[in-house]
């Protein structure tokens, strides 16, 4: 009976079959210890000469890394085993050979590994990260679905830019047109929220940024909720609840994977509501106190975000930035019209911004003014302006970058390990 | 207390507040009947002159379609009401006005409506379709998640084509490179299945097809599962179970929406396992018997698929097509090497192909041969070939186009209504 390694606990004492690959092995004179993997986990299979006979034992002598094998044997609980179980092998069949597998237990450079990303993902560490990514994405979707948000996909091909065109990828759309790849579904989300109340989109977004930092990919996934009849406080409450929910679920369901990548769980366990809510003004004060050369009025750079986030044991929400450095679509603070009703959520441990959101500008006249001030072509935004002409309502939402959340929750140095096939300035292969 | 219309059944007799828009209204001398919508549903609010006083009653006299309003009143069960409930209005506040809303209850042409798609989605019918789409997508994700499949996102930017380049959209990737927008995540899925066992990807895919048919969009969403250690029968079993699961869940949870779009539920209720499994050879016989001028050897066209699918009350699985008309990556049938071990699932009622899948070619030498025969650049596929060099295993999977499934389940004539912002040959706006 074919059993997945992750389910083996319910088959102790039974004769089962594992279909997978040889991850590693060592041998003593009369016993082979074979570490098998099947995509759901890793397990040690113990093959003794006495148990399988001389011929099969000898055949297993030269099995090399990543040979695909079907192993039949008896599942056994073993407290010393990392997963708690082992298999006593009765039979082993080689399905596909593997000669000179290029990724060995020794150290390889990151470019070497990225060139072989299709194989690198078989490693215990990369495998664990991708399973955590899977859990994070499902936690996000469940969070919105149980709250009655409707998934409404926004287009990838867009005719105009959300915020300028310098970081847009152009695509040739048949002979004579140019379509730009989306940087954000937000403007469409706003239209969808007016139709469906509370919505989210969740898809790939694109940014043609030439910076080679550890926080940037050219292609990354973003979830963006948007709510009709909501203000900045609702946006902050939602962001906080989302992050708490994700972290809690990953701790709950992916403890084994977090352990495999040696994540310090105590850091994640302190991620609880309420998150500190700090105004931009207060944040600037903190930076100055810490000796950073930051002047009021600018957006925070990566070192500023790192310093701010290091002040807290959980994410911090920084709100009300100078309107001048933020998007044209943000509502100004009625109490201080030079400030925007926006929020950035900075992850702890120096991971920086993971969420950016705001209450949107719902007033028709003010929006028209802003579009002019920003030198945007009004015609391209007529449909967006329509939302203020026909039953405008206060509304708001945010965007959360999945790769940055994965990097933070897994404790990774670089976002390139957070997605199966990272796309960067000089990387399109494989 | 703010309540969403879909939750009103749990607040009968209470004073509640609805935040939404005026969808429609009619008045008799002393009563206004206001149809409100808030994105979660529609409800009639009854405002009597006696109940709200002359002034407020008169103010509501001229409320126009899509005015945003906050209405407070008492929820009341009413068997005659479409949703089963009504509200007796105590107070009404106008949030945003709406003058000359461009989509009226009269008939509009489809181009007129598509130009106003950001408003059209507020209509009862479009709103219902998008909610069914949401349910279908979540049914798909839950199906794979509960079975232990891992979501592994495949890249949008790809360096080479899966099957030729004529229908690819090129994107300028920084100064000097061209990236192609993905048509399928399959090849990457195969690598991911070797790492994670059972995987799926679910994202937008792109096809630069100039055909203006009712089945084609240039940008559409596709889910693609892939399983290691699986053969064609496993692929067919999985496809069948998925479709049954989706249809059952939509009937179960979106009955109100299906009723709003007047879908014949009996057609959906017959979608039960087992689906007929018909070989290509048998399918050709059926077409000839029906008088279609079809010759053995070609792929089916839309009229052929329509005729075939009309023979059954549920989806039909057609398997083992001539290898010559199918992808280079499909395993040939050992019994008849001129046939591919593939399957297409055709939806009933003439909706045609919704799923295409196969067992993949796992043999290294045969794959190298095929790549030559198809004049593909071997270098670009080296990483894919690696999967056969290092522990190859039998494996297979399929792709299912979401928009076609939505069109079929909702009984729509054209896929353009299945996604919030359809992208077609001449349509990039809004």
Give the tags.
BirA Bifunctional Protein, domain 2, 18 strands, 2 domains, OB fold (Dihydrolipoamide Acetyltransferase, E2P), homodimer, 13 helices, alpha+beta, five-stranded mixed barrel, 430 residues
Alpha carbon gyration radius of chain A: 26 Å
What number is the mean pLDDT of chain A? 95
The CATH class of the largest domain in chain A is: Alpha Beta
Number of strands of chain A: 18
Main sheet record of chain A: 8 strands, mixed
Shape of chain A: elongated
Number of helices of chain A: 13
CATH superfamily of the largest domain in chain A: Bira Bifunctional Protein, Domain 2
Largest interface: A-B, 94 and 94 residues
Q: What is the CATH topology of the largest domain in chain A?
A: BirA Bifunctional Protein, domain 2
Oligomer: homodimer
The CA-CA distance between the termini of chain A, in Å, is 36 Å
Percentage of residues in DSSP E strands of chain A: 25-35%
* Structural category of chain A: alpha+beta
In the CATH classification, which architecture of the largest domain in chain A applies?
2-Layer Sandwich
């Amino acid at each position: 009976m074919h059993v997945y390694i992750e389910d083996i606990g319910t088959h102790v004492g039974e004769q089962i079959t594992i279909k997978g690959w040889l991850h590693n092995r060592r041998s003593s004179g009369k016993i082979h210890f074979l570490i098998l993997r099947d995509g759901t986990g890793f397990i040690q299979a113990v093959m003794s000469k006495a148990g399988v006979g001389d011929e099969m034992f000898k055949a297993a002598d030269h099995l090399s890394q990543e040979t695909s094998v079907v192993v039949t044997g008896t599942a056994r609980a073993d407290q010393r085993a990392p997963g708690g179980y082992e298999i006593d092998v009765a039979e082993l069949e080689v399905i596909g050979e593997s000669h000179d597998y290029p990724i060995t237990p020794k150290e390889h450079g990151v470019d070497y590994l990225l060139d072989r990303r299709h194989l690198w993902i078989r490693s215990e560490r990369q495998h664990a990260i991708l399973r955590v990514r899977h859990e994070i994405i499902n936690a996000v979707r469940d969070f919105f679905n149980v709250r009655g948000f409707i998934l409404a996909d926004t287009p990838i091909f867009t005719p105009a830019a959300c915020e300028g065109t310098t970081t847009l990828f152009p695509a040739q759309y048949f002979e004579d047109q140019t379509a730009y790849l989306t940087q954000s579904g937000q403007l469409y989300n706003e239209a969808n929220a007016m139709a469906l109340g509370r919505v989210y989109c969740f898809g790939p977004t694109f940014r043609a940024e030439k910076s080679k930092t550890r926080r940037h990919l050219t292609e990354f996934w973003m979830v963006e909720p948007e709510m009709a009849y909501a203000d900045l406080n609702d946006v902050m409450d939602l962001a906080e609840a989302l992050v708490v929910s994700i972290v809690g679920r990953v701790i709950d369901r992916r403890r084994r994977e977090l352990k495999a990548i040696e994540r310090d769980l105590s850091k994640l366990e302190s991620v609880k509501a309420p998150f500190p809510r700090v105004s931009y003004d207060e944040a600037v004060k903190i930076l100055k106190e810490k000796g950073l050369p930051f002047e009021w009025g600018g957006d925070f750079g990566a070192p500023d975000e790192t310093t701010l986030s290091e002040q807290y044991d959980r994410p911090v929400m920084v709100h009300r930035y100078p309107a001048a450095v933020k998007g044209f679509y943000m509502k100004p603070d009625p109490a201080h019209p030079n400030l925007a009703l926006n929020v950035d959520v900075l992850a702890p441990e120096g991971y920086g911004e993971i969420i950016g959101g705001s209450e949107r500008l719902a007033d028709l006249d003010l929006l028209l003014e802003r579009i002019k001030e920003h030198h945007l072509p009004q015609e391209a935004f007529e449909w967006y302006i329509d939302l203020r002409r026909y039953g405008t309502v206060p509304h708001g939402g945010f965007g959360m970058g999945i790769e940055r959340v994965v990097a933070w929750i897994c404790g990774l140095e670089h976002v390139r390990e957070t997605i199966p096939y990272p796309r960067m300035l000089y990387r399109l292969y494989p």
